Amino acid sequence: MWLLAALLLGMGGVWYGLAQKTAREQAARVDRLRLARLQADYRRDLAALQRIRLRQREEIDRLIGRLGMLDARLTRLDALGRRLVARAGLDTALFDFDRPPAVGGGRPVRGLVPGEVDVDPRLDALLDASDRLQAGLDAVGFYLMLHHDEEDARPHLWPAPGGWISSRFGRRSDPFTGRMAMHRGVDIANRQGADVLATASGMVLFAGFSPDFGRTVLIDHGYGYRTRYAHLRDTTVRVGDEVAAGDCIGHIGSSGRSTGPHLHYEVHYHGMVVDPVRFLPRHHG
Length: 285
Prior knowledge:
single chain; alpha+beta; ten-stranded antiparallel β-sheet; 3 helices; 41% helix
């Protein structure tokens, strides 16, 4: 009898040991599965963070590039402002581009926005430079009003003799995308190399290349009027040049975002684009 009891006790011990081993193995498998899931979640989260970091790095690089372009543009315009102030004989003490214009206001309140951070010092410097630049551009308008009357400043000539309007001002189907978009000027088709004329007297603010407009001339006529001449083959004027109505400022081309030889012509009045047809003569050569 005691042998049977001992046998049963031994078998029970073996069974208990096997059960314990099985339980430990099951627990280990569960732990391994949990660990595998945690590792997979970690790898997924890490990959997502790396993608976010890459996008942020690309955005930072893009912003740095934009800051560089703005810096270069402000440098050119700053030089133009100094030249214009000198040419107009204005008081350089009032248009000192090395210090910001006099301003005022209440003390800034900080710390109200959670997570507020300081603006990049380089961006601050560019904003300060843009304030100084505005003084120079104000000098442009002042100079032009001193030297031209409003009748001369108002665009009144046909900018591309021999050409015809191929696309009017307003909403139209974009020739590249097919989508409806605002056309901010008129397109005047003409032969390659034909003269492009200033439509009123003024001063050249920009003469160079831009990705969309190609070779472009921007003229400030004073009294709120500005005109843009785009997609040129070449330009015959430089920034700061004074032009009279009818002066050749460039030649018809197809530079920039263009489908063929033509002039894109815009008229701005106090910062707003207006239909150039209102300023074009009924009869032109």
